[in-house]
Specification:
Helix content: 40-55%
CATH topology of the largest domain: Alpha-Beta Plaits
Number of helices: 3
Radius of gyration: 41 Å
CATH architecture of the largest domain: 2-Layer Sandwich
CATH class of the largest domain: Alpha Beta
Strand content: 15-25%
Structural class: alpha+beta
Number of domains: 2
Largest sheet: 4 strands, antiparallel
């Protein structure tokens, strides 16, 4: 039927149908745009959060770098004090020298016996050398000895433990005498590393 034969109601119905279809299409497009917009907003917020976190990490990098450098320097300093060989006789002489300088009289100094029946473990980079020491002297001499052992020796030696086994009061202040047992531990490299010549 030609358009000229259409009644006004038919034109209105057609127009309403076209407008309704357009409105439906626009509603669908708007819904898609809104849901995409909402997703984009969430994505933008996520990226902004990640950016802020990365900026914070970036600000902390110099401090972390400095801390890492300090730890590496400390490791190098400690490893420089660890010999490749046990050399127990030289270690005993150095401990004797430090005890005399501190004012302690050594009554026993020997390498500790290895515990038997230990489980095999993965080899470690450093091997401990345990020493047992018994000596006599005052509180002040004990403090000086511990300080000298841990800070002044060329090789790394640490006081593992100590116990006071006896006490004798002196006639005058500062002349008290202690009988002291000290367990020391030194280290050597398990698999010597060839040091680079500088």
């Amino acid at each position: 039927m030609p358009l000229s034969d259409w009644s006004e109601k038919q034109f209105l119905a057609l127009t309403a149908g076209i407008v309704g279809g357009i409105l439906l299409i626009m509603a669908g497009v708007l819904f898609y745009i809104y849901s995409t917009y909402d997703d984009l907003v969430k994505e933008i917020k996520s990226v902004e959060l990640q950016t802020r976190n990365l900026e914070k990490e970036g600000e902390q990098l110099p401090a972390k770098q400095k801390q890492l450098e300090e730890e590496m320097l400390l490791k190098q300093t400690v490893e420089a004090r660890i010999p490749e060989e046990a050399n127990v006789q030289q270690l005993i002489k150095q401990i004797n020298d430090q005890s005399r300088s501190a004012g302690l009289k050594i009554t026993k100094l020997e390498q500790a016996k290895e515990a038997t029946g230990r489980r095999r473990t993965k080899p470690k980079k450093y091997e401990p050398i345990k020493m047992e020491l018994e000596c006599k002297g005052g509180y002040h001499a004990l403090g000086q000895f511990i300080n000298r052992i841990e800070e002044r020796m060329e090789r790394l030696v640490a006081v593992d433990s100590f116990s006071i086994r006896g006490y004798r009061q002196g006639l005058e202040p500062g002349q008290d005498s202690l009988t002291i047992a000290i367990d020391l531990v030194a280290y050597k490299f398990n698999n010597p590393i060839k040091k680079k010549k500088q």
